[in-house]
Amino acid sequence: MRLLAISDLHLANPINRAAIADVPDHGDDWLILGGDIAERDDHLRDAFSCFKARFQQVIWVPGNHELWSVRRPGYAPLRGVARYRHVVDLARAHGIITPEDPFPLWPNVADGQPALVIAPMFLLYDYSFRPDDVRLDQVRAWAAAERATCSDEIYLWPDPYPSRQAWCAARLAATEARLSALDANTRTVLINHWPLRRDLVHLPRAPRFSPWCGTQATDDWHRRFRADVVVSGHLHIRRTDHRDGCRFEEVSLGHPKQWRQERGMAAYMREILPAHMPASAAESMLAAD
After folding, report:
1. Are the CB atoms for 234 and 195 separated by under 8 Å?
2. Measured distance CA(190)–CA(109) in Å, rounded
3. Residues in contact with 271: Cβ distance below 8 Å, sequence separation at least 6, in sequence order
4. Closest CA to 269 of 106, 47, 45, 30
5. Closest Cα to residue 238, out of 217, 222, 259?
6. Domains, the chain, with CATH or none
7. pLDDT tens digits, residue range 235-248?
8. φ, ψ at 134 (rounded to 5°)
9. pTM summary value
């Protein structure tokens, strides 16, 4: 029994979408879907249905793409919290665990070992992954000076919150309260689409994309909440890092040019528990989201 993880499937692309059909049955394994699965509801339903049929349990956290409000002819999209709640309902309809559900316990823990809590989170970002000398009101212009931007500025609305920073603050407070309420003897696997630490945001081709990549408020959460592993995506750079005895796994698949289709999608599912499969340097690739 294993806990596997993958993110950033970007099923708007037909190559990625077709690859789902070739994922084999994984028996009693669990799967983490780490966000940016798709923007469209029909693509999300197909993915949820497919993975739930092939894994004993599926755990999903949203990325920015699930939250996008994209207008199409005859379709007025939901925005902000309403969009998030809608996608949570889509996942729940397929029996998938979301950040709004009770945290599950990993069942494959040896006798005498502390309980291991799997904690899916939705935290967003607040533009604090920026240089200390760049003010918040300057951050978009600072990024644009080197041609960095994020489509969230067009498609990701914070309604009813006044800003994405305010929505992020609310998500941080609610999630921190849940994690703080856990028994102090438990260990955790923390899951969030956006990285929890600024020093893990490696963006050599687009360094000024970092403001859209997380919040400094979570810098010490792996220590505070006793994490064995932290799982994230968003960066499209598959890699393993370690901080303070905790393993950090970036598990993105990415766009078709960022993975080898002949290997199949399942080959890019990272083993989180009981061990891990470190990404090779040849697999570590970047594309700004």
Report:
1. yes
2. 17
3. 2, 3, 4, 277
4. 30
5. 259
6. 3-283 (3.60.21.10)
7. 999 999 999 999 99
8. -105, 115
9. 0.94
